[in-house]
Amino acid sequence: MKATIERSTLLRCLSHVQSVVERRNTIPILSNVLIEASAGGSVRIMATDLDLQVVEKMSAVSVDQAGAITVSAHLLFDIARKLPEGSQVSFDSADNRMVVKAGRSRFQLPTLPRDDFPVIAEGELPTSFEIPAATLAQLIDRTRFAISTEETRYYLNGIFLHVSDDELKAAATDGHRLARFTLPRPEGAQGMPDVIVPRKCVAELRKLLEEALDTNVLVDLSASKIRFTLGGENGVVLTSKLIDGTFPDYTRVIPTGNDKLLKVDPRTFFQGVDRVATIATEKTRAVKMSLENDKVTLSVTSPDNGTAAEEVPAQYGSEGFEIGFNANYLKDILGQIDGDTVEMHLADAGAPTLIRQDEKSPALYVLMPMRV
Length: 372
What we know:
Elements: E1 2-6, H1 7-17, E2 32-37, E3 42-48, E4 52-59, E5 62-65, E6 67-72, H2 73-82, E7 88-94, E8 97-102, E9 105-112, E10 127-132, H3 133-143, E11 158-164, E12 167-173, E13 177-184, E14 195-198, H4 199-209, E15 216-221, E16 225-230, E17 236-241, E18 260-264, H5 266-276, E19 286-292, E20 295-302, E21 306-313, E22 315-316, E23 321-326, H6 327-334, E24 342-346, E25 353-356, E26 363-367
Antiparallel strand pairs: 1-5, 1-7, 2-3, 2-6, 3-4, 4-17, 6-9, 7-8, 8-9, 10-15, 11-12, 11-14, 12-13, 13-26, 15-16, 16-17, 18-22, 18-24, 19-20, 19-23, 20-21, 24-25, 25-26
């Protein structure tokens, strides 16, 4: 294989694919990226960790000899990063070695044959629909903070996508909080199986979306695989296995009869929670909210660090009571609210609280209280 590529093109492409490659691998080939140069003048780069696969196509300056080879992903990325700006990078592979040249630099890297490189077999992907990249990015941002990191409940380690009525819903929960985002069902998504998209796939997809926010993303899926195609012909294709498990019926924990309504400015409230939580320790992450007429008093008591309290103006007309929340979970949710007010629908000190911007908002959150 012989090909020449602009450094900027190569670097952008490698930055997308190398993050899929795990730093530690028991199978040597999984540390490598597959580079395929075709006679038509394009180069494909591919990386996988056996659960997630990313393929990107880029145009080369020239392809003198078509072929394919695999080489260390992180090594090639580090080299490309350090090469001079504006340079052209040439690849020349033969005899289990690849020579990389740019300007006065010359590297000789070990390679492994392309035939050993594993490819995820996609099989049939019967459901296919398009979704604006900006909408998909918003869906991820509004839900992914609630994904569980507990390996024992592996079926919570991702975002649950499902269709109900005329809506596509995304949900994530770790048992302490729930985030749900709803959008109109895209054309072609009817009859779609319920799927759980793994956390790593969500993270990689969100990074790729950053550079394609004004385009549409093609989503193809079956009950076991999902594929995202970004940026059309010369774009990126991300394919992932789905989590094989059953997501719990989260609708049961969304409260419907919470009759106490609190309205506050999310930024002021966030800052207040953040300030009083300064003295909280690992054991006392709870912040206590004392609700009275048109005000909330936030307080934290720590046996080691003393006490903190702050009053926040609010709209509240129900009877006064006290409730406690994990300060970090509360801040995570408040950080998702863009508007000037946030609604908290409360029942009592032991019942889950519903949080949203307003009733028209596509995002909805449920937070379990803590004993304080």
